[in-house]
Amino acid sequence: MAMESGSWKESYKGMSADNIKGLVLALSSSVFIGASFIVKKKGLKKAGASGIRAGSGGYTYLYEPLWWVGMITMIVGEIANFAAYAFAPAILVTPLGALSIIISAALAHIILREKLHIFGILGCVLCVVGSTTIVLHAPQEREIESVKEVWDLATEPAFLFYAALVIAAVFILIFHFIPDYGQTHIMVSIGVCSLVGSLSVMSVKALGIALKLTLSGTNQLIYPQTWVFAFVVITCVLTQMNYLNKLKGSM
Questions:
Q1: Measured distance CA(130)–CA(182) in Å, rounded
Q2: Is this model's pTM higher than 0.85 or not?
Q3: Contact indicator for 189, 183 with CB cutoff of 8 Å
C-alpha cells in the first residue's frame, strides 16, 4: 500500500504547470459543452414544433434564440478546449471530453426528464474512471518550437494513410448511408461526427501551439502550415455541427 501511495504522489508531482492549466481548461470545457447540448436540444425541439425539424433537413432552429444560447455556450466550451490543447498533450485533453457526456446525461435526466438506465450510469462511471486514470498518468509533452514540427508529424505516411481512410469512410457515410438511413439510424450521423473529430485533434493541437508560440513572441502565422491547420479545424467543426444538429433534431 505504501508503494502504491508513493506512485500516486509521484504522478501528481509529475504534472507540469502547463498540464495543470490544460486540465483545468479541459474540465471547464466539458462543463460548457455538456450543458450546451441540453440547451441546444431544447431549442431544436422548440423550433421543430413550429417548422421543419433539423433531422428532416430544416433550418428553422437558426431563428430560435434558445438554440443560439446553446451555441454560444458550446463556442465558449470549444475555446476552452482549444486553449487546453495549447498547454497539455492531446492524450490528456481528448479523454476529458468524455466528461461532457456525463454532464449531458445528468442534465438530460433533470431538465429533459430523460430516464438514465443502469447501463447509462455504468457508462458514466467508466468515463470517470478512464479519464481519471489518464490524467494521473499523463506524459510530459516534449517542447515544440515551430508549427512545422507538427506538420512533419502530420505528413508522415502512417497518419496520411489513416486520414485517407477516415475521409473515405466519411464520404461513404454522407453520400451513401445518410440519405437512406440518416433519419432512422443515429449511428450514421454519430459515425460522421466521430470520424471527423478524430482528424480535428491534430489540427486543433497544431493551431493551439501556433497561437501559443505567436503570443510568446515567435510568430507562427507566417507559415502556410498554420493556415492549412486552421482550414482543417474550421471544416471539421462545421461538418460536426451540421450533423450533430441533424442528429439532435431526429431524436
A1: 31
A2: no
A3: no
Buried b (16+ CB within 10 A) or exposed e, 174-185: beebbeeebbee
The four Cα atoms 180, 184, 185, 191 give a dihedral, to 10 degrees, of: 60
Look at residue 72 and tell me whether its pLDDT is greater than 60.
yes
pLDDT for the residue numbered 73? 92
CA dist., res. 84 & res. 74, Å (int): 15
Q: Average pLDDT, stretch 107-111? A: 85
Tell me which amino acid residue 27 is.
L
Query: Which of 245, 212, 249 minimizes the C-alpha distance to 74?
Result: 245
**CA gyration radius for the chain?**
20
Higher pLDDT, 184 or 24: 24
Q: Output the DSSP codes for the chain.
A: -HHHHHHHHHHHHH--HHHHHHHHHHHHHHHHHHHHHHHHHHHHHHHHTSS--GGGT--GGGG-HHHHHHHHHHHHHHHHHHHHHHHS-HHHHHHHTTHHHHHHHHHHHHTS-----HHHHHHHHHHHHHHHHHHHTPPPPPP---HHHHHHHHTSHHHHHHHHHHHHHHHHIIIIIHHHHTTT-HHHHHHHHHHHHHHHHHHHHHHHHHHHHHHTT---TTSHHHHHHHHHHHHHHHHHHHHHHHHHHT-
